[in-house]
Amino acid sequence: MKHAAKKLGLMLLTMLIVSFLAFLAFQIIPGDPTNTLLGSEATPERVAALRAELGLDRPFFVRYFDWITDFVQGDFGKSYSYSMPVADMLSGKLAVTLLLAAISFLLTVIVSIPLGILSADCGGWFDRIVTVLGQVTMAVPPFFIGILLTYLFGITLHWFTPGEFVSPGVDFWASAGYLVFPAAAIALPRIAMTVKMLRSGIMGELNKDYVRTSHSRGNTRRATLYRHVLRNAVVPTVAFLAMTIADIVAGSVVVEQVFAIPGLGRLLLSSISNRDYPVVQAIIVMMAFWVVLVNFVADLINQRLDPRLRLQ
Residue 150's domain is classified under what CATH number? Predict the structure, then answer.
């Protein structure tokens, strides 16, 4: 309990620092959102009036305090470009991105865990094939995998129609079906990395003394692997999968562009180009919160799986 409270406090401190840096970054980078909204021909009077309307003429720390106070209450501000609450803009986009991330993570787990175990257990030609395919997959960026999947399954085989995404609110299963292919583009490199990590963890555990003790008691290699080795080997893999969950959300930014998915990624890129700072700040803080929360949960899971960590 003490460990969880300490981690929770650290998580809150991290989020406070991230929120401050996200707010600060858009105050020091060159450019002014009023120039984007009014154009370069706007008079100084109109610029000053718009800055006052947007609250940009107030002191930095006053604006940050008001923003973070409203943010924790669910008020993310108003979009400069669309003049609507940021929370309303993010609600539908967030659902799409989270569904994409969930499918990507599910594919990663259900493929990589059995494949990693089999690779360590079987060895031989199977292990060599998995290793080679993993190296190739890790070397190819997700957006290029997405282009290949679009060409093969979308244009050639017509398994889906590129660009014709259906919102989850309209047809959940049609939306999920469309997202399988971009999810695969995101998941494939992470599957390869997870397989490699799990295989290495298992091989390392198989050389330890308790494995030899298990063999001396008449247990077979496979029985020892599934009864004892996996419990220890899976601990670092759980931590890695936690980082994978966080990375999947961040990695969806480019893949959403390739498959024309109206998620947070596309909104983030368009908001950056339009200097729509309230939208960008909200997305950055939400992504940071996701990363911190996932790692917090993973740490608690590791504490439960590994008794050695509970003794520290």
Answer: 1.10.3720.10
